[in-house]
Amino acid sequence: MTETDRHAKVVFQPSGRRGTFPVGTPLLDAARSLGVYVESVCGGRGICGRCQISVSEGTFAKENLTSAAKNLEAATEAENRYASLRNLPAHRRLSCQAKILGDLVVDVPTDAQTNRQVVRKRAEARQIDADSAISLITVSIDEPDMETPRGDIDRLREALTSATGLADLCIDPILLPAVQTTLRKGQWTVTAAIHQDRGVLPTLVALWPGEKNAVYGLAVDIGSTTIAAHLCNLQNGRTVSSAGTSNPQIRFGEDLMSRVSYVQMNPAKLPDLTRAVREAINSLIGKLVGDVGAERSDVLDATFVGNPVMHHLFLGIDPVELGGAPFALAASDAMVLSARDLDLELNPGARVYMLPCIAGHVGADAAAATLAESPYKHDEITLLVDVGTNAEIVLGSKKRLLAASSPTGPAFEGAEISSGQRAAPGAIERIRIDKETLEPRFKVIGVDEWSDEEGFAEKVDSVGVTGICGSGIIEAVAEMYLAGLITEDGVIDGAMAARTSRVQSRGRTFSYLIADQDVEISILQTDIRAIQLAKGALYAGVKLLQDKLGTYRLDRIRLAGAFGSYIDPKYAMVLGLIPDCPLAGVSGVGNAAGTGARMALLNRGYRREIEQTVRDIEKIETALEPKFQEHFVNAMALPNKVDPFPNLRGAIELPEKKTLVESEAGGGERRRRRRRG
Fold first, then answer.
1. pTM of the complete model
2. Which residues pair with 420 in a beta bridge?
3. How far is CA 100 from the centre of its chain?
């Protein structure tokens, strides 16, 4: 028997999912094939360390197997390198590197189980006048007779043409087998749903016996992390139900580029990524229609938005061309498609409108957010930013509008941060540091009280304090700067160890301890660097657009997306994530992409509006701009090396510049690491 003929049984805990795999299969691939969530940011290269697992050793009678650490292949060079540079406990392995040699019971540690994240993409309040692509027409036709040998379908079309004036009305072939049955069931009175949109012929897409009063549409924002869906009444424009879920594609890669890399290395797996997202959407549809007592067949139209990679993967298009210059989109214009061709469990005749993408890394989600905020209608200069692993930036006014993307990476979502995690119960989402005592207080998701308030200790036991999410890491770094714990260059001041035991030596650098109830949560020097790199890239992208626009004045800043809505504008500006602006002009706008998707669903006029706007937007490719590096270097400082931030300084007192002597900046081993008792 050859090595590839041998198989081993693997059980993943705590999920209990199990399977049999050929010897030599990477453990991460086994987990993905079973739908077990194991975080992976780097695309399986063994450098992010997020896919750590441990082997439970012993004989498991229930599973009829004996599990041992030796049943994994020895550590690879990449794994050994990671262990030497970062903290990899002796009992942990990197699942992307470890290959199966024998039977295993594998434990996915609690700190890696971040798939229970909080989905924060609700439907924002917005009055939208209904003028949907679907219209309902109730008609009655005569019963057939021997004198008029016209087909029932033909006579139905003539009646609909007479009622609507649509001489070129088509009938979706999916309806042909059921027309006669429906007519007789309705005693020759039926309600027809007609789809009309520019660029496609008006088409009869659904038919019901008798009268039909309500039909629905679906607006979906496919994010790389979460999927948000809204069910809307197409007659009155109301949003009747909303739901969200994690994007199951996470198991193939944490961020966009890791998913592109996964498809590039495993081209035969592209259908798996497409199937995963479509199945998640179908599950959301079931929940939404169930909420209002409707049927899937009542949903006749849908709009979808997403970044270019999500857009392509949903459509089943290989996204590999988006992984490198010139970042070519397979399709960028708006499209009207049949829902059944996309395996969507809606009415068989339902249609799908895909909003246009703006550029290679500025997608339909940015277009939808632009539609929702409509900077092209205002005199004020507006900056619209969707902060994510790839920040999408739109800047301008009704005179001129520009767009670009900036590669911020996954640091703002908790990845690349030592104690980072996604927004889930137990994650620190808010933090304040007392300038005198340097003591922190914080708030975790799932507990209403702050850590210094009565009742916190009792309630936090239910969720724990497990890590720090994006909004928390931004506030932590900004608060450390305001408290004098770090310099404008982002260096932790080791001299502050004389004032607080929370500043601790870490070899040649220092860290700041926030909490150590369940697991130690500290801000390391490498964490601050990761945030500086991310915010520097975003700020540099904005500055390039300001250069092109010819002005550095900003009247309004709108932070879009679930993450953007949970950032405190003050801390975003202190960090230098966004440029200076009157603080009153900075606000989160929630799920603006979802709002734009609902607008396009409910009113065809908005479809034409965003199609024209996308054609008019000037696209700037930041990677090709020579000044990007100069702006990026300046943006590494807090809040910025050269920009003065007068509005911010007028609102709060920023620390004076401090210069660290070598002994303070270096850390070294001269100071003992001190822990709180």
1. 0.80
2. 468
3. 32
